[in-house]
Amino acid sequence: MNAAERFGVSRNSAWLLFCCALMAACISALSYLYIGLDKGLDLTDESYYFLWIDQPASYLIAGSAFGHFLSPVYRLFDSDPAALRRFGLLALMLFAAGFSLAVTARSRTNSLADKCGGWLLALACAGTTVTYYFVWLPTPSYNWLPLPAAFLLLTGLVLIYNKYSDWLSALAIGAAGLLAFAGKPTTAVGFALVYGCGVLILRGFTRHALLHVAQSTICCVALFLLAAGTFLDAPLAIEQARSYIEVFGATPAAGGGFIQGAVGPVGYYVALAAAVASFRLPPQKAKICGVVAAVAAVSVLVSRLPAYGVGQGAIAMTVSLAAVANCLAWAPTRPDWRLLAIVSLGHMLPWICAFGTGNTLLFQSSFYVSLPLCAAIMTAYLCFGGRDWRTMAVALLATFFAFAALYAADRSPYRIHAGLNSQEHSVPVGGGLLRVDAPTRDFIENLRRQAAAAGFSPGSVVLDFSGELPGAALVLGGRAPYFPWLVNGYDFSERLASAAVAQLNPDDRKQAWIVRSDAPRTFTAAFVTSLGSDLDKDYKIVATALHPLYGRQVILYAPVDRAQ
């Protein structure tokens, strides 16, 4: 007797029940997020993203080309930051749903499949993309680009399996490579290795495999040339990258040693081993592996739940592996190992997307957990078909992480004074409006009002020597030279600030406005003076405001001739 029938519920009734719950959960999570994407403004990282996207060609160094790729979209929406954020969500939903539909398109040949169930699973995969917003940095950036690229990569590989047009799959894979490179070059290298593995799985080391690699390379190069001929200044991007390496070095400042950053909780590896064993072992032993994986997932959940935001990656990736192990253990027939292997690459991709970060890999992988969650949903589909309550149950389980991410974002949004429900005060930012909390509104309005009274005009050069406030240039409508964020506290910091001042022409250097604060990381007055800007003789304090998050005094200096 089926598990659902033990409780007096037929298979169809159970399926319909889970379908209704799944639709309600996905639509409510996605709608809540979409409506709330005008909330909050982080004055550090996110302001840095906006400055870079707004004028990517005005900076002399850049770690990646993400600003060049996102700037046309920003301009398309009249520099409205909320519209750019909503575009980011819709794009993620589209690519995740596209991957799901590529897998379920086999409904013509798979007797277990169901087209209605396929569309519901596409909605579920779209819903998992809400997990990207767990720390509430909703503006697309170099952290965002690898996620749509990963879905494109998986879709392209599935299209090869489905024997669709080779050129269509090559186009998807070429676009994935270009987007990954625009986000982080290290990610593009990792994607190339994953693509190579996928082609070998599907076609072996044959002439057809080499031909597809050539087609994908041609598509990637053609897309790059198209970008270079329209919105991407390729020589400038190359020079920005070269200068970036000169200042920062070839690798970012690490948030922890490689081993410390790479190793996840033991339960994750137990669930991984159990999932692999479930496919290889006979049904009875496979079910034992499913139980082991479930226990491992519960152990990780219990240990990481108190700090969910930080632990989202470990929990979601472990639970998705446990779901895979149990689907394989209880499947009436084993799915084709080649398609299963391609889908299962989604469990590997978060680590590859995270590689090259200054954070620990385990934390950074949390941005990309929609990949293993979608892989678990697709594994359930391959095991049970689209018209089975167990498939919908796995999809509903994956959707749970969307609500958990929204809860984490509201509880402790990244470097924002209050939760999302407190972001209700509208302020102009860029070409649109964002809703912020009261202290952030007061900070922005006070700084703008006092700067305007002192003669500040949009486009003026702003040198942020506070070391932590690129948002000052953003909210003032100023121009940050050389690099959007003169971050302090690193061995390269003074070298970066010196280079930023050195490249200014004499008029801009003389007319530049300066931001400092009483924060520990602010550049010292002596260092600022050594750059040719005597704060006592050449500048006058014209504005002060309290930092909304830290409560520190932020000080705006104007050139003496402007202040007078």
Strand order of the largest sheet: 3-4-6-5
Q: Name the average pLDDT.
A: 90
Number of strands: 6
Helix content: 55-70%
Task: Supply the helix-strand structural class.
Answer: mainly alpha
Number of helices: 25
First-residue to last-residue Cα separation: 87 Å
The radius of gyration is 25 Å
Uncertain spans, ≥5 residues at pLDDT below 50? 1-5, 108-113, 252-260
Per the principal axes of the C-alpha atoms, what is the gross shape? Answer: globular
- % residues in beta strands: 5-15%
Major sheet: size, sense and barrel closure? 4 strands, mixed
What does this structure look like?
With 564 residues, the chain is mostly helical. Helix content is 61%, strand content 6%. The chain has 25 helices and six strands. The strands form two sheets. The chain has a four-stranded mixed beta sheet with strand order 3-4-6-5. A two-stranded antiparallel ribbon has the order 1-2. Strand 5 and strand 6 form a beta hairpin. Helix 4 (81-104) runs parallel beside helix 18 (370-384), helix 6 (146-161) runs antiparallel to helix 7 and helix 7 (166-183) packs across helix 9.
Task: Throw out a few tags for this protein.
564 residues, globular, two-stranded antiparallel sheet, 61% helix, mainly alpha, four-stranded mixed β-sheet, disordered N terminus
Summarize the entry for a quick read.
This protein has 564 residues and is mainly alpha-helical. The protein has 25 helices and 6 strands.
